[in-house]
Design brief:
The structure is a single chain. By secondary structure, the chain is mainly beta. Strands 1, 2, 3, 4, 5, 6, 7 and 8 form an 8-stranded antiparallel beta sheet that branches. β5 and β6 form a beta hairpin.
């Protein structure tokens, strides 16, 4: 059996410094870094984008850190881990979501996020080749 060149299939996480609708530098200073684990830029065969926000410092319930209202042309999945809490607006409805939990945002749905407490991780998975 021929061995495939696996180096093309193994990604190394990269720190995200800019992302539309997200105040990345402010969020990094106040709560922790955001890493890109996978997308088509990293591995051309990838059809998924995976971002991981490490919430290193406890976020206050009054935090205004998060993503402004936007939408995507593909489905998006948020996975909350450890003790992090998020306020997530889907369309016109707002929910307080506590880890461990997940939220599916269907393609085309307007949504926004706000970190609302705790520490932990938020994993964002988008179908498709890149995050826009």
């Amino acid at each position: 059996m021929a061995m495939r060149e696996t180096k093309q299939l193994i990604g190394v996480p990269k720190r995200v410094v800019e992302l539309v609708h997200h105040p990345i530098s402010k969020m990094e200073r106040e709560i922790g870094p955001l890493f890109k684990f996978m997308d088509r830029e990293m591995i051309p065969e990838s059809d998924v984008t995976v971002l991981v926000r490490q919430v290193e410092r406890v976020v206050s319930k009054e935090s205004n850190l998060g993503a402004s209202t936007h939408d995507h042309d593909r489905d998006e999945l948020y996975c909350l881990l450890d003790d992090v809490e998020m306020e997530i607006t889907l369309g016109t409805d707002t929910y307080l979501v506590k880890a461990p939990s997940s939220v599916l945002v269907p393609a085309g749905m307007k949504h926004a996020t706000r970190y609302a407490g705790g520490k932990g991780y938020m994993v964002t998975i988008l179908s498709g080749e890149s995050y826009r």
